[in-house]
Amino acid sequence: MSILNRIPFYALLLFVGLSFALTSTLKAADTPNVILIFIDDQGYQDLGCFGSPNIKTPHIDQLAKEGVKFTSFYSASPVCSASRAALQTGSYPVRVGITGVLFPRAKIGLNPEEFTLGDAFKSKGYATGAFGKWHLGHLPNFLPTRHGFDTYFGVPYSNDMDAKERGINSVNGLDRAWKLKKEANKFWDVPVIRDEKEIERPADQTTLTKRYTEEAMAFIEKNKEKPFFVYLPHTMPHIPLFVSDGFYVDDPKLAYKATIEEIDHGVGQIVKLLEKLKLRKNTLIIYTTDNGPWLGKKHHGGSALPLRDGKFTTYEGGMRVPCVMSWPAKMPQGKTCDEIAATIDLLPTFAKLIGAQLPKDRKIDGKDISPLFYAPETAPTPHEMYCFYRGTRLEAIRSGPWKLRLPGVPNRRNKNNPKKGTKKAQLYNLRDDISEKQDVASKNAALVEGLILKARAFDEEIKKNKRPAGSLPDGK
């Protein structure tokens, strides 16, 4: 007689039920909650774990100790909107039609037909929330709620826009605003939006960092019984810098430090909540930034050292950004990965982790970098070549340790006179020269020629197959 025939029917049902519950639990454990913290204009060096000499970031440093620090991690653009379009779509900005910065009078945004991070998580039943600076179109058609997010709270574009006083965004103006604290909000007419409705104008920027953190935490509490994706794109430390009262220091030369340290405090609060809810082990936290620091703002900007230059450029300081990832259930602790990885890789990587299907009717440039999560010191990068666009111009590529700046790229100081600034190709070995000081093109002519051919072929393909930005319907 079969053993099943000797088991009472109700016991068999109980056995099947327990097996199903165990299988469901195992599947849930394999599917992480994800929190993506995306900072604005933070420099490569501006974390304790990346070598800052004065900024204290104990909570982010702890994430690095409990996870992996990525030291060759790249944005896809040296400016705000383009870098965010790439993050959301897994594609270079040129491919999705957002190549610069969107301003308050813009009538375009990220095309609602694009498949985004929010869409990927939503397709697998995740609760999805975005809290912070969006900057992919401020009109309802383009807001996060049209791109796979259940809810949104934040400012729709950069916090220095719609300035009401001439010169307020200069260093002297920013010094004055810092000293005025909350009174300085009047200088910028930036709205706060909840979902698709404006609820505050001008934004009280002194509380933005605190409110974003609180909104994210409330969302986590609300959705603790199911998987969730939190996108937390902080407004700061993009100028103008503001902090809540508990982090304020009178000296404007310490404004940047105070701003980063308040963000770090918020990271600590989120981690503490996850631990309280017993969700920390299976939550993947990623901390990175949209582009390099705004060096022209002096002490209101950060540092990209030892990298060259900063925001607005395709030198390393403009696009190589700090990145820390921690997922205690799956990732090793205290490791460093120096393989090429990028924000465009997050969409395909998340899709792989949660079992989401990417669209098959379009090109997505990012790669699955999950092998780097599990073996950060031995797994190879999936990128044979990584591209550095500024606007619609391909200015440089990286392949292995080699960084090639293409011939004909205008000198930034002479951008209005490209002929005067035209250069020959430049080649840097980033493994030996992370600061891009020694041009070795003349010693590697064959390598330069091969890389130029690859770069031009890719640029031709992407422009041939680019997709349009979103635009308003006729009559709007």
Could you explain how this protein is built, in words?
This protein is of the alpha/beta class. The protein folds into two domains: 32-374, Alkaline Phosphatase, subunit A, CATH 3.40.720.10; 386-471, Arylsulfatase, C-terminal domain, CATH 3.30.1120.10. The protein has helices at 3-6, 9-30, 58-65, 80-89, 93-96, 117-123, 171-180, 208-222, 255-276, 316-319, 346-354, 370-374, 418-421, 445-464, and strands at 33-39, 68-70, 73-74, 108-109, 127-131, 151-154, 192-194, 197-200, 228-233, 283-289, 323-326, 335-337, 341-342, 386-390, 393-399, 402-405, 426-429, 470-471. A ten-stranded mixed beta sheet has the order 8-7-6-5-9-1-10-11-2-12, sandwiched between helices. A four-stranded antiparallel beta sheet has the order 14-15-16-17, with helices on one face. A two-stranded parallel sheet has the order 3-13. A hairpin with a 2-residue loop joins β15 (393-399) and β16. 50% of the residues are buried.
| CATH architecture term of the largest domain | 3-Layer(aba) Sandwich
The helix content is: 25-40%
CATH topology of the largest domain: Alkaline Phosphatase, subunit A
Q: How many H/I helices?
A: 14
What percentage of the residues does DSSP assign to strands (E)? 15-25%
Q: Strand pairing plus helix content: what structural class?
A: alpha/beta
From the N-terminal CA to the C-terminal CA, the straight-line distance is 75 Å
The CATH superfamily of the largest domain turns out to be Alkaline Phosphatase, subunit A
Radius of gyration: 23 Å
The number of strands is: 18
In which order are the strands of the major sheet placed? 8-7-6-5-9-1-10-11-2-12
Largest sheet: 10 strands, mixed
**Overall 3D form:** globular
Instruction: Provide mean pLDDT, rounded.
Output: 92
**CATH class category label of the largest domain:** Alpha Beta
Number of domains: 2
Low-confidence stretches: 1-28
